[in-house]
Amino acid sequence: MLMKDLLYFACRHHIFELVLEACFSMCIPPSSGPNIQLFQRFQKNWVITTTAFHRARWMAKAIYVLKFFMFQTQFALTRVEKKSLGRIASFIVSTYVFGWFEAPFPIRAPENDVRFLKRLLSYEKVDPEVAQAAIKKFSGRLWYLGEEMIFLFLFDNRVDEKTKKQMVEVFKTGNHCFVKENFTPFESRKIKAIVCKSDIENLRLEHFVSARSIRLFEILNIDSKWLLEMGRR
Fold this sequence. Notes:
- With 233 residues, the protein is mainly α.
- It has two domains: 10-141, no CATH class; 144-233, no CATH class.
- It is 48% helix and 5% strand.
- It contains nine helices and two strands; from the N terminus they run H-H-H-H-H-H-H-E-E-H-H.
- It has helices at residues 12-27, 37-45, 59-70, 79-102, 109-123, 128-139, 161-173, 215-219, 225-230; strands at residues 179-183, 188-193.
- A two-stranded antiparallel ribbon has the order 1-2.
- The longest helix has 24 residues, at 79-102.
- The chain is elongated.
């Protein structure tokens, strides 16, 4: 409709909310309605709160789960419920929270996504089922590792200059992997990276760079000559 390419700046918080939803649904049996029965019990029997507890508000799950653990001696839980909530709470505080609080920073997204994937892989040693549910959900939403968004890392001060220069060289050669074909009415675009679980351990940012990564600057109408000069210095 606009007759021009747009960048896929997907909402980072929404992506991580979907990851938490996948883990929560794996641990807590689904309810018949939009509300979560366990949370309704907590609200009715322990405290009156304005916090949403229906399935449409995924971050509410993290808040409620942590509340359960803070006040578990004051609220009756079954053995199965305690175990399930414990699994989710452990995932939140040890792995998930790092991705959630970094979500507002798009220039840090490529590096953060690689780090988060590796955190999830390491979490398999703690809870394989939760880790696998998170990896499956997150791996399908890697827009910021797609070839058009990957160059955001150039503005991330955590990535050293040597690595940035190496990745510019990768860009010049056009070698890449882990990208999925996505088609627009105008041209073929590879906007989302696809990562296999077996690749995560050795994953690096340069795996996602291609000759088309320059599209980030073209779409934003930014002169990219400085990028070519960067590789020569």
